[in-house]
Amino acid sequence: LDFTSSFYGALSMGMPVDAAMGEARLAMGRGKGRPLEWATPLLTQRTPDGRIVSLASDSEEQRYQFNIVSFDDHGRERFDKYGAALLRLDEFFDGRPIRAPELWTEEILPGLKGWLRKGILPEQKSRINFAAHLTIVLATGRLLDVKSRRDVIVQQYDVDWDAEKGNPLPSPVWERNLPIEVVDENKTDLAVAVSLSRSILPGVQEYVSRGEGPAAQIGSILDATPTTGVGPTSVRDGVHASQLAQELINRLDEELANRPGTTIHLFLSAPQAFTFFFGMRTRSIPRLQMYEHHFGQGSSTYVPSVLFQGDGAY
Asked: For the segment 197-210, what is each residue's pLDDT rounded down to a tens digit?
């Protein structure tokens, strides 16, 4: 049953047959009961790309569905029907907090990278639905960067966020040209406080003042507040999310041109679509330190997650 549901579920989502077989084997390994090494299924194929099920239709909106889950705040069982088109990373977390910091680079990001490479192919229309930490969402965008020729949109609460569909707002889309506050002129690193869903600048200022961990090197803070105000409707659609991401990247590129060797420290309160589209553009940032908010421990408590470096993912 584990094999059948996973294998045919993957095929129904348009995944290559070899990738579907691999996911089905993993499902068997995760299943209850004794190991079944003696019954490991084998695959022989002739198709060059492994595609034996086509999702092509007359509708331009037909897309391959992929789902990434790392917490169950909204009921992860709703994703179970997707079978092998589902990447579950919740085993590495105790609710929201990660079980051990090294799991980010030793397990989570390598697993994410391999899964994306198998399923999301160039020139294929895809949709990703997240119930995941923002570090994972940003890493997904970074792995599927704007030069990768991947046609991907984001789904959040059953709404599609497409960077090509919507109405752009008049530029600039950020308040006061994204001002920077100097907190220690002897330090070169720059913190970026993105306040889209809620205002986080005061909390980031307080956290930076403590000088804990990587944040001890922060000398200035950029305030990213949108012209549409802060709140659940601050980002209007996929085009607006992409526009916000691009203008913020442009501002950071300007700063980095005058501050070589600077690490960008990213603090986010933002929709997943913005985070994904921003991640797609971050290959131009040599060093990007991501933070997760520590839920239930106060508005100004953050935990460093991943340091993204150079052209690599991490």
From this structure: 999 999 999 999 99
What is the length of the chain?
A: 314
What does the pLDDT look like over 248-291, one tens digit per residue? 999 999 999 999 899 999 999 999 999 999 999 999 999 999 99
Question: Where is pLDDT greater, at 102 or 166?
Answer: 102
C-alpha closest to that of 197 among 133, 144, 251, 272:
272
How many angstroms separate the CA atoms of 243 and 220, rounded?
24
Least confident of 14-23, 28-37, 88-97, 201-210: 28-37
Dist CA 223 CA 47 (whole Å) = 52
Alpha helix (H) ranges present in 168-282? Answer: 201-210, 238-258, 272-279
pLDDT in tens, 82-139: 556 899 999 999 988 999 999 999 999 999 999 998 889 887 899 999 999 999 999 9
> Which pairs from 146-151 meet CB under 8 Å and 24+ separation?
146/280, 146/281, 147/283, 148/122, 149/122, 149/123, 150/120, 150/121, 150/122, 150/124, 150/126, 151/123, 151/124, 151/125, 151/126
- φ and ψ of 269, to 5 deg: -130, 95
For residue 309, list its beta bridge partners. 287
Beta bridge partners of 87: 68
The tokens 């990768």 sit on which residue? Answer: 148
d(CA 50, CA 310): 33
DSSP output for 1-25: -HHHHHHHHHHHTT--HHHHHHHHH
Q: Are 108 and 137 a contacting pair, CB within 8 Å?
A: no
Residue 211 and residue 102: Cα distance in Å, rounded?
21
Looking at every residue in the chain, the average pLDDT score rounds to 86
